[in-house]
Amino acid sequence: MLAKRYFCxxxxxxxxxxxxxxxxxxPTPVVAKEPLTPEAIEVEKNLREKFAADxxxxxxxxxxxxxxxxxxxxxWFPQAKVQSQFGWDHVRERFDTDADxxxxxxxxxxxxxxxxxxxxxxDKKLTKSDFDWAEHSLTATPGFVAFFMADRDANGxxxxxxxxxxFDQFGGKGEDFLALDDLRNQFTPGPPGAREIRADxxxxxxLIAGLQNQEIGSLDPGPSVGDVAPDFTLNDLQGxxxxxxxxxxxxxxxxxxxxxxxxxxxxxSGNLEKLYERYKDQAKFFLVYVxxxxxxxxxxxxxxxxxGIDLTQPQQDAGRRVIAERCxxxxxLEMPFLVDGIDDHVGTTYSGMPNRLYVIxxxxxxxxxxxxxxxxxxxxxxxxxxxxxxxxxxx
Length: 395
Hints:
The protein is an alpha+beta fold.
């Protein structure tokens, strides 16, 4: 049954997470506490000396040492929540004229299409629930599972041909239609507590090395909403330098951080491309290509190997640019790519690894920052902030 392996499938596509089915009351799974290697012990010591005890980096280190598989409810994830100037409080204060805790289409001054993008649950009104993103982006809903099953080339976009292949896989090969039970059987949960052992499950020492190398994520928390966006200059894929401060002014700026070996980033590429197409005339978009999350010489992923994405961590700027070019081609993304240097300066400064989203306003201040990737990587959440920011600009 598909449901009996759906969460593991998500993990094998590059997620940081557990091996369970994601039930609400499922405890965070732990890995066996095999002895740490001498190298890992030394790294742990150095990290504890470098970072404060209450820092995000030490929270993640503690979780790894305790044996967590980092399902999203421990480590640095609880600390690194979304920050936005355009959440529900902003919407309620500005548009809820009758103070009934909801905003109707008549109360909202923007366009119908903008209202629809804000109305995430499609109930024709804006309420607090539309801005509640507590459910992480890797929650294995039936739609999530079907998407990963259909996306055979792992490029974040399901074509008609791929969807037709899924029809055959669901029992419709040679048939004219699928019946209710054909689909219901695919999504029948397996027995409670069922687990599928991952061939690529990392050891604690592997995770500690990944933390030190910032493949799991940036050690620093990055700037906060209200801060002036740190300036940088990076080259695009054609070798042309782009300086952030020179781009600030007439339009908001969207920064998207990601890398090829991060499955959750690849899975969102279709959403990112549609976001870019909808707003490219109203905002400036830059995809900042950063350090690989799952290189074959680090925390490797079986799903990457199956998709033919089997890469070692580049050691030079030129090598990273080559992989960035391959990523842009494979994902068929039209937005401009900027390639972070091999010193990871921008990825570290913005806490952009393995993936992250920012919106910078016309004054150069950060107005939106999503939670830690991969679990907090919600392009739709960024879109809400962008829509509301543009609407405020028009007023």
